[in-house]
Design brief:
By secondary structure, this protein is an alpha/beta fold. The protein contains eleven helices and twelve strands. The chain has a domain at 186-290: 60s Ribosomal Protein L30, Chain: A, CATH 3.30.1330.150. Helix content is 36%, strand content 22%. The strands form two sheets. A ten-stranded mixed beta sheet has the order 3-2-1-4-5-6-9-12-10-11, sandwiched between helices. α2 (38-41) links the parallel β2 and β3 (53-55). α3 runs parallel beside α5. The protein is globular. Pfam families: Tubulin.
Length: 351
């Protein structure tokens, strides 16, 4: 893949942080930021309001309202299409969104439809950020609705990666991992006497139809299988049930792990590409099945929160009765008796 022909698109705040990190990592990428709030754009180092930012006119955030976001992008569809057509050289457009929010979550379906029409020759990849299972009911519901939107236009999407927010403790850790992993995947190329991955090979792997995975391998483990097992365990991407894939790309440090042993961990239906370098170990899978287990867990978490909400009994008021002597009566709430003043009214004291 040629980085100058990759267009990174951030829909909303969470996505903007990741795209900003990738642009800081490598200035060769092109980047666009779409948002409904200037407040979300200001902290981003690589977002230039006069160059690569599109703010929906007359808006001030979506408030995590997906319906509002859908209305905003439809109102701006022509302008967005015109902007995207300024990047006709784009070979791969990578669209980032947080699934639990509003601005990106609600816009993702319409945006991909606009992008597909604006640059018909580009391949559209998606990086969708799943929430943690502990997030609130609205976040989980938005995620499921966003999942359904994405699946309804899967024919327009090449590679899709789902980021699992349960894998790290903070958003910053997740963002940093996503940036490092994707930059390694897009930098998969290498030339070596024992194997070469050229730009077309990298493009084929990174844009295969289906779910994509990136595994960073740690140095110093006893064998290749142990390295793969640990990489899968630590991966920030949602994992499928099986690791069957269309394409497998392996780029390893010279004199390190045996790539043939690594390849045994995966069922590859089309091609395996191998090369070597001096700095890192990365394995990229293209064309895997969708990691449905992750969304099923989110649905279970939402059902649990919805059930507990229905069972909740929220008390908003309490009437206190008085006896003839002006004292409060005990009630079922367990409130202690209070004394009253001479006028028969409750007295309040503030320290």
């Amino acid at each position: 893949m040629e980085k100058s022909k990759i267009l990174l698109v951030a829909l909303g705040q969470g996505a903007g942080n990741v795209v900003d990190g990738l642009l800081s990592k490598n200035k060769s990428y092109n980047g666009l930021f779409f948002n409904s709030s200037l407040f979300d754009i200001k902290p981003l180092k690589n977002a230039n309001i006069d160059k690569n930012v599109y703010l929906y006119p007359g808006t001030d955030g979506s408030g995590r309202d997906r319906t509002k976001s859908k209305e905003m992008i439809k109102d701006n569809a022509n302008a967005i299409g015109t902007l995207l057509r300024k990047y006709p050289q784009t070979e791969v457009m990578v669209v980032f969104t947080s699934m639990a929010g509003g601005t990106g979550s609600g816009a993702i379906k319409t945006f991909i439809q606009i992008a597909s029409a604006a640059i018909p020759t580009t391949k559209i990849n998606v990086v969708a950020i799943l929430p943690s299972l502990t997030e609130d009911q609205l976040s989980l519901r938005n995620t499921i609705e966003c999942w359904n939107d994405i699946n309804s236009i899967m024919d327009l999407i090449s590679d899709i990666k789902f980021v699992d927010n349960n894998k790290r403790n903070t958003y910053k850790e997740i963002n940093n991992e996503v940036v490092d992993n994707l930059d390694l995947a897009y930098n998969l190329m290498g030339t070596h006497i024992d194997g070469t991955i050229d730009r077309k090979d990298s493009l084929r792997i990174n844009t295969a139809d289906g779910s994509g995975l990136v595994f960073k391998l740690y140095d110093g483990l006893k064998d290749a299988k142990s390295a793969i097992d640990l990489a899968i365990q630590n991966s920030i991407f949602a994992q499928p049930d099986t690791y069957d894939c269309d394409y497998l790309g392996i780029n390893l440090k010279i004199d390190g792990y045996d790539p043939n042993e690594i390849a045994k961990s995966f069922e590859v239906y089309r091609s395996t590409y191998i090369t070597y370098n001096n700095d890192f170990n990365v394995v990229v899978l293209g064309g895997c099945e969708t990691p449905t287990k992750s969304i099923k867990l989110i649905k279970m978490a939402l059902d649990d929160k919805s059930k507990r909400k229905l069972e909740r009994s929220k008390k908003r008021s309490l009437i206190i009765d008085f006896d003839d002597e002006g004292s409060t009566k005990e009630n079922n709430s367990g409130i202690e008796d209070s004394h009253v003043g001479d006028g028969g009214e409750l007295e309040f004291s503030f320290e």
